[in-house]
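Give me the fold.
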Amino acid sequence: MLISGTAAQKAATSPTSSSSGAIHARPALCLSAQSAECKASAAAVNTKAHKKAKKSCATKARKHTKKCLAQARKKAKKKPDSTAGLNANSVSTRPAGYGPAQLRGAYNLPSVAARSQTIAIVAAYDSPNIEADLSVYSKTFSLPACTSSNGCFRIVNGAGAKTPLPSPNALWALETSLDVEAAHAVCTNCKILLVEAESSSVNDLAAAVDTAAKLGADVISNSWVVNEFRGETSLDSHFNHPGIAITAASGDTGYGANWPAASPYVTAVGGTTLDVDGSNARVSETAWEQGGSGCSAYESKPAWQADAGCAQRTVPDVAAVANPDTGAAVYDSYGYSGQRGWFKIGGTSLAAPIVAAIYALAGNADTVVAGSYPYAHATSLFDVSVGTNGTCSSRYLCSAAAGYDGPTGLGTPAGASAF
């Protein structure tokens, strides 16, 4: 039996736990890259291109620093126009990062689902201003309003009740803003159900997934991760909801499988660096060096996976944009790390709700079996064959290649037909 690099994977290390012994998840968002992993405590992406390039390159510990700097400066000079689709009153704000036009344009997506769909976002703690923030986002990018009054937006606690909502948390509030706004950006007529778990413990978050399923979600997005741990398989049943497409972020610490992305009942979503041109067409896409991938230490291989270098569950299945340098514009007024308003955010926290919303656009989640559907429709994906996220004994698990590979799975969306 060959399990590539399992003992060395970050995913097999001890997960974050509290003094009570509870295992706690972390958001998979990324504001900036430091020391080869995303630090949520870092300030928002520096707006001065040279400083950003210098800092990013210096901390990558790469040999070709000069080349990296030159490439970063070149990218900074041709910033994507996130103002495409902005209304006239908000063009002056010019939020940095990709907006709905770039996300839909790059992946050849329609803006609406053919039939009514509900996307559930599962997050921890309360985001007190989320509905107001979604309104600002929608107005800025001329999207249809999604509010509780028009029946588009609903927020409940982990048990499914409107009250009481959990206590607020600034980092998780920013995560929630990212998830909700990305989902609305991609599927503008989808309803959004936000389920706020009482805490970041995996028990609370897993129970919130069950709540989302009970409340009628067609698709459920999870942008939280935890290092793999003994006993994770006992929680997999919370993701076993046939007829509901469930996505999970693969994580932002490079090579190494995380949970719940490793669960065989989800579509695990990895990360890429995405460049678009002035018409919002996809120009290039490479594996993001910090996107999670790997061979699970505990999860059995699903019948629909056939890669030979990992006898267990391989992560991820597909991928989407995640590099914060090519991240999305997100509005959050609750405030994080001394900043309020517009952020530029990446991480597989961005990729997971994008893919969830594409499942909703496709409208056939009721026929989806776990993460199997893209494997039967791989020709409808962009194959990403460049980039790496670390070192491993079976090269494809940590380096992009033609066909299936660890960092980007089967590839990235090329329309909605693979979902």
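The longest helix spans residues 170-186.
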